[in-house]
Amino acid sequence: MTHTPTPVSAAPWLDVLQPELYTPIRVKWAGDRCAVCDSDLDYETDQLVSCDACGITVHQTCYGIPEAPGMDDLWLCRACELKEPGRPEPQCCMCPVAGGALKPTTLPGLWCHAVCMQWIPEVICLDTTRWDFSLFSLLSHFP
Ligand SMILES: [Zn+2]
Ligand SMILES: [Zn+2]
Ligand SMILES: [Zn+2]
Prior knowledge:
Helices cover 10% and strands 13% of the residues.
């Protein structure tokens, strides 16, 4: 019996652009605690903010929201803000978990969880205020 090893792609994070290679894991996100640090503490200077479209809840500093939205203001996470009809749901290119506190990256069409960005040292954040445009220095390891 021969064992055929699963082929390893040269750039696994690009697999998210090919849904047939990839099975996203669906989890239930709690609306009452931060999707990044999992704390439900709401601080005066670092408030919990919920997306009015998908319901994801994050701290201002965990997701990079310089100004807390007012009580009556609409706030959308970046995934909902940049959503376009007909486009597939954004998927983190670092893990298989669907949804969550996602951020766009410097690579068009690729998204990353704010929490994945914190835990994976090769993923760097270039703009620490808004936390967008993380640069994948990982890419430089591959020709
Ligand atoms: Zn948090
Ligand atoms: Zn949202
Ligand atoms: Zn992720």
